[in-house]
Amino acid sequence: MVTDNSEADVKKINHILAGYKGESNLLIQVLLEIQKELRWLPKEGLIRISQELNVPLRQVYHAVTFYKAFSLVPKGKYTVTVCVGTACHVRGSPRILDRVEQTLGINSGDTTPDFKFSLETVNCLGCCAMGPVMVVGDVYHGKLSLDQVRRILDSYD
Amino acid sequence: MPKLKSALELEELREGIVSKRDPSRLCFTVCSGTACLAIGSQPTFAAFEKELEKQGLKDRVDLKPTGCPGFCEQGPIVVVYPQEICYLHVQPEDVAEIISQSMKGQIVERLLYVDPVTGKATSRESDIPFYLYQKRLILGNNRLIDATKIEDYIALGGYKALPKALFDMTPEQVLAEIEKANLRGRGGGGFPTARKWKSTRDAPGEPKYVIVNCDEGDPGAFMNRALMEGNPHSVLEGLTIGAYAMGSHEGFIYVRQEYPLAAENIAIAIKQAEDYGLLGKNILGSGFDFIVKVHKGAGAFISGESSALMNAIEGKVGEPRPKYIHTAEKGLWDKPSCLNNVETWADVPFIINNGAEWFASIGTEGSKGTKIFSLVGKVNNTGLVEVPLGTSLRDIIYRIGGGVSGNKKFKAVQTGGPSGGCIPEQYLDSPVDFDELTKLGAMMGSGGMIVTDEDTCMVDFAKYFVHFLSEESCGKCVPCREGISHMLDILTRITEGKGQATDVQLLEDLARMLKEASLCALGQTAANPVLTTLRYFRPEYDAHINEKRCPAGVCKDLIAFYIEPDKCQACLICARNCPVDAINGGKNLIHVIDQSRCIKCGTCFDVCPPRFGAIKKISGEPVPALILEQDRVIQRKS
Lengths: 157, 638
Ligand SMILES: Cc1cc2nc3c(=O)[nH]c(=O)nc-3n(C[C@H](O)[C@H](O)[C@H](O)COP(=O)(O)O)c2cc1C
Ligand code: SF4
Ligand code: FES
What we know:
Chain A is α+β, with helices and mostly antiparallel strands.
């Protein structure tokens, strides 16, 4: 179950923040670290960041909503990222994305109700020569064809 | 490891490393960049480890993970030294054979590169046409280096330029050399590097900062990723030399978070350089101090713009500042700052080592040196291509890239990222440099080169870029924020078949407004993809607007899929694959598509066996009436 400011989350956040007291320059780096650890940024965490780094909460929210790497809602166990960059686009990524959306039953940006998958798009992962590319968790799947999509997604539990 | 205290100690270290390496020793390299990881080079590498262990060869031969050699289409790639035998698409099950044959000095023929035209196999890597016609100055070492080992870089002559600059040259002489080489920025703008360095150097205020731009936001481009992952010390060396020339003692490397391996490898490289005393206090005993920090981006295209990037490093939102404030004077924390692209910095050690004249002898009048391009899309040999500036598009796409893939017809090549443009067939002989492509309404940009074929709809393609830019506009200024989204509305309605006769004029008006009134280059150049497609592919726009037809068969609202009754063999493949069960068919029963259920995903078109070719894309005309039920049964000759 994912809840806002669960005890374990707060602990993790405090642990990360311990190394950064007053380091307002490192706001983005701290946010990235917490996002990576929890896969989202709970409100309680943002308040703690604001206090510890000495950055106004308004500025913390500005950064969180500006950059694509951050999420204000809990994410699923696996993040499925479909590249929609130019090279992948030319090689059929729009259809891959359609197929993933259909298979998972959610739109890009959303999370399945069982919190297993979150679906996202990205504008290039730098493996354009392997397009179309999809990443599940941290595993890259290159030269993807439509009929591989279901098989790959089914292999996660 | 002991810190090196002089240039001499560095040379001794180099000699020590080189003397311990036996050039005749068998060595297997496996490319391990992100792209190869995407197609599974890790299992191949693991298979090598296991097999060498099993055969008891671990101490007799070397195994090395290397950076991206650029021939990504053919990965995972294994090269066996010293003969430089290149094997393509190497799977774990091929590994035992490669090892045992190599031990006998023999070659595994079936894994070699085979010329698609002549059918001739090539064993030596550098003889493969993809490599043969390139000039790999900067990228060349990627395939020889394990990026996590500074010793590999040093063994190949790395960190030779640094002591030369520190001990044999004054900062002014370094600057003069870069100026004489006429090095221009590789990040897209082509601004003379020396002029930027000079402004930073002469600007009042301390400290001064030097920064590496590895944001590489242009989708479809991965030159910087390959360099940063594969040869990070070459960038560090260039940066340190630049810092010396500008009197800076602190540098930043800005890496986009989408490149985790690049961030990891550069962090390792910094640590190793510090341990050897090639970074930090009193570098090589020269009295010059320089430290470098890594800053990760958080996903925003606009943060690659110079002033936005500096805001981001300060921990703020990466939005541009007004241009009249020059970052060379007031950049990071309002101090003089110099930002250059990864590739620009990597050019520096070459210029210092070989001299400005040598560098200026490569390339064209106004554009010197080589440039790395990311050749992707519908081309046979996708990957990274490094050629002298001035090489023609045709040489890059056909001679090196092997032409358009899948026997399709070339349509356009898109260069310069979202601010660039689409160049049609008739201009393929244009030389690629900072100035020529601009004349065509496109630009060279940072090096993205996306090849499209007859299956790409140019209106949809323009819409793609405008959509990208509408999401990436930071929204700070109105012309860009509103102008781009208005353009997107117009393009969207054209692709939906709701275009109006006045739309093209409207697009052109908006383009002019964007160019003149936007704050930063994102908005100023946002219309380029639209303008170039309008200029070279106007009939496609007209077909969408006037005939409600998409000639390439891409725009979903303007096409339909139809099964030609006389070609259908009732094999059921399409019906089984249709994700929404829109195909009605049965054994010996000609299949038909229920147009009301069809989502136009095109799966049937893809899976229908080519020997039947029964699925037809229809655009601009009505779908033929359903065939009569009694005519659907196929009478087969027995
Ligand atoms: C919207 C926008 C995005 C940019 N993205 C990048 C980028 O990802 N990498 C880069 O090197 N330059 C990028 N630039 C160009 C930089 O502003 C800057 O000119 C460049 O980093 C300077 O380096 P150079 O002189 O070595 O080319 C971008 C510019 C704009 C307007
Ligand atoms: S032109 Fe666009 S991206 Fe640049 S500052 Fe204005 S709104 Fe932001
Ligand atoms: S465009 Fe998809 S990885 Fe670059």
